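We were asked to recover a plausible sequence for a given structure. The inputs and outputs are reproduced exactly as logged, with field labels preserved.

PROBLEM: sequence recovery
POSITIONS: 115
GIVEN STRUCTURE:
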């Protein structure tokens, strides 16, 4: 089972950079045997991966907007075709019954809270 991820502040890369700078200026890397080289690599990895993450998110959001517009257009054509078939067969109950699975699913409305 995968471990749950730790909540990381959005300013983590800036905090990491400030900590590395402080560790170096205070000499804590030598005093406490802190691996500053690994922390520097972590900072570079964090910055490049964060940049890639932002770019991928922007690309996804742009694609998703286009997808939802196109999907709405496709659904409109689907509904139009269904309406034409229903109108053409309005006197044929067996055909109308066979078209029932294609109707829009209704969702129950929430009842207003009692006052």
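RECOVERED SEQUENCE:
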């Amino acid at each position: 089972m995968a471990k749950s991820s730790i909540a990381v502040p959005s300013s983590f890369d800036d905090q990491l950079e400030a900590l590395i700078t402080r560790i170096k200026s205070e000499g804590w890397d030598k005093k406490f045997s802190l691996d500053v080289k690994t922390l520097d690599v972590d900072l570079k990895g964090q910055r490049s991966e964060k940049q890639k993450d932002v770019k991928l998110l922007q690309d996804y959001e742009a694609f998703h907007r286009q997808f939802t517009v196109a999907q709405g257009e496709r659904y409109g054509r689907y509904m139009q075709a269904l309406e034409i078939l229903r109108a053409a067969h309005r006197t044929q109950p067996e055909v109308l019954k066979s078209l029932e699975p294609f109707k829009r699913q209704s969702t129950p409305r929430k009842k207003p809270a009692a006052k």
